[in-house]
Amino acid sequence: MGSSRQERSSHFPDQTLLLATGLANGEIKLWDVPTARFLFHLKGHRAVVRSLAFSPSGSLILVSGSRDKTLHVWDLKQDGKLLRVLTGHSHWVYCCSLSPDANVLCSVGGGRTVLLWNMLSYELIRRLDGHEGDVVSCDFSPDGAMLVTASYDTQAIVWDPHSGEQLMKLSHSSPDVAQDLIAGGFDTGFMRAACFSAEGLYVTSVADDGLLRIWCLTLQRPVSIAPLVNGLCCTFHPRGAVLAAGTRDGHVHFWSVPRHLPTLQHRCRVALRSVMSTQQVTYLSIPNKMKQFLAYKIF
Hints:
Elements: E1 2-5, E2 17-22, E3 28-32, E4 37-42, E5 49-54, E6 61-66, E7 70-75, E8 81-87, E9 93-98, E10 104-109, E11 113-118, E12 124-127, E13 135-140, E14 147-151, E15 155-159, E16 166-171, H1 175-184, E17 191-196, E18 202-207, E19 211-216, E20 221-227, E21 231-236, E22 242-247, E23 252-256, H2 264-273, H3 278-282, H4 288-294
Antiparallel strand pairs: 1-2, 2-3, 3-4, 5-6, 6-7, 7-8, 9-10, 10-11, 11-12, 13-14, 14-15, 15-16, 17-18, 18-19, 19-20, 21-22, 22-23
WD repeats: 42-84, 86-127, 128-169
Protein name: WD repeat and SOCS box containing 2
InterPro entries: SOCS_box (IPR001496), SOCS_box-like_dom_sf (IPR036036), WD40/YVTN_repeat-like_dom_sf (IPR015943), WD40_PAC1 (IPR020472), WD40_repeat_CS (IPR019775), WD40_repeat_dom_sf (IPR036322), WD40_rpt (IPR001680), WSB_SOCS-box_domain (IPR051983)
């Protein structure tokens, strides 16, 4: 499921709020949220549509991921024209996410797969290796300088999507326990989802141990924990004051989240990293410690 406030097109009035829903038969339905009016459907997938992502640029581009192991890129301005089918997954696609500048697509799936795609050329940029189980969730930080992925291996990994480097691991279990869980098929530690907060300094994770955790990236540990049975997904409000989580029994839970005022240094980092890659940061004539700060190697 995905939603977005989009630009004007022949099908949509100005600033229409759209909702996309994926179905078990592989179809996607588009809805006008204010009126709850069905607009049209997209056909092309051959199995369950597991994930949907609108372009943050407001260009009316929609990306869908499916159990048929493919990603489809649709242009809603052209009556839902299928622009490209991306193949590269050997197992189900569980989740997809677009970077804030809409230039990079992350897709994750079975077989420990994390793939990054160039949305201008539709070519595969790189594969990220590090998880020991199926990867089920992904999300970019607000400045696009970090990427978080969550896996059945009980871990969330924070990556630098520009270099492919692992910045940190957030573990629900110790490595030894995690390996035993995977080998034994015991799934109480499986992570189901992870997402960044609005300011990019916190990550929320949902797992099968019945807990929702809010991790502070500066401390690399949870600072808040709440009970959540059968948790499946989570997302922050764009302004950061509300956290929502969905469960497998059809419920949606909402939490009021304390708003943290980022430091001036972090605000400057976000402003720079929104327009600069990690490689560009390395070329700056500044002290090495400042480069590490800008690259999120230190907080």
